[in-house]
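Suppose you are handed a protein chain with no further information: no name, no annotation, nothing but its sequence. What can you learn? This example shows the usual starting point.
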Amino acid sequence: MSRPGGRRRGAAQGVPQRPFGQVERTFAPARVISDDQVAAIHDAALTLLATQGMRVLSPEAQALYAAAGARVEDQTVRLDPGLVAERLATVPARFTLEARNPAKSLKLGGGFCIYASVGGPAYVMDNDRGRRDGTFAEMVDFLRLVQSLNVIHQEGGCPFEPMDLPAHTRHLDIFHAQIRHLDKSWQTQTLGRARTLDGIAMAAIMLDTTPDALAGRPVLLGIINTNSPLQLDVPMAEGLITMAAHGQVNVITPFTLAGAMAPVTLAGALVLQHAEALAGIVLTQIVRPGVPVMYGGFTSNVDMRSGSPAFGTPEYTRAAQVSGQLARHIGVPFRSSNVTAANEVDAQAAWESQMALWGALTGGAHLLEHAAGWLHGGLTASFEKLILDAEMLQMMEAYFEPFPTGPDDLALEAIAEAGAGGHFFGTAHTMARYEKAFHNPMVANWDNHTSWLDKGGITARERANAVWKQMLAEAEDPALDPAVDEALSDYVARRKAEGGAPMN
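A reasonable first move is to predict its three-dimensional structure. Written in structure tokens, the prediction is:
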């Protein structure tokens, strides 16, 4: 049985939840290709970096690579295998991310994984109003749900764009809302130096410290996307360098779609992903040796008839598992994602997300980005999908719990009590566990057939719609020191008066 846990204050009645926390995976990740095949992909990526190289558009990044011994010609940076190995040696295999609430700080690496909510879509969607541009008020509602869902460990970097706010100062209001409405870990934005510095400064205010003092305290995590194939642009380079210099966590994530931005073969796409990830990881260690960094895997295929991305496919699942092997080969913590190309919260969304979840988590991911709420190939954040994904995550957490085989678990006394031809409904062994299960948030209210009939045959999407509305109505913002909130407000006002961040 899964571990029991009571309802937290403010949790919606009828919305079963596990307590907040991480379950440490105790069995080995999937190994779907041989060690020789992993080495072949790694060696091919090293050859690519040493010969063709990576186009780096930032002069600052070029200078850093050159000072570390890379060969830089015009905008092309070539990395010798020895330089790559030297810099990989300083990457920490494990680290902890501080949260505003110390009880919600997170372990990353080893058997621990962080589930982060969807981040970055352009649109928001629910059953009542369909897909649309999002507003700041709706974004705050989404954050409150993320706070309320115990299985979500981290907010994923702004659920969707609040289009009613000016683009050059929007990030300031987003960061302030993340701090106000969450006491969990949250992700920052890394598009350019100014936005990245604002996130770091506001995280420092949140913890009553200074940006310089955060250098040895990983608090923020930010996604750095390379421009596949083989390019690192100026805004992403600036974000990477700024995060690394302040001791914060970069997640280097190539977007390698086989047949579009990468070779059509899965092996070729993974070679490209691995090369680009290595180039970014090396740069973080040049900036600050020993700074935490992650290997981001986001390889999938495309629909060759339309050119649109395909997610939750067998190719995506296998790529996630192999990416985990590649990350372990170089000793760097691994990020993967829960994704779907479905346009609605329907059966396609469910099976693609389940395939993606299975690939990512059995592949040993330490960060599951977009763990809940992703829809429409990443263009849309869905309130209903947030709830359904959270339920799937709870199932995965139960799956990863240790498998007990003590004398009571082997149940010889229960087998004897039932006897030949008997049943186990009334045995003492069953009844003792029934009493626990009755109060267990993982199995309470799971009389699916009766509940479906009693509710008039509502769909999962309709039920999720009712659940998120109930949870939102009962949500309570975590306490925030008024002096901290005032200091944040002052910072936001000053930065807005200065013009915010340039549009990159």
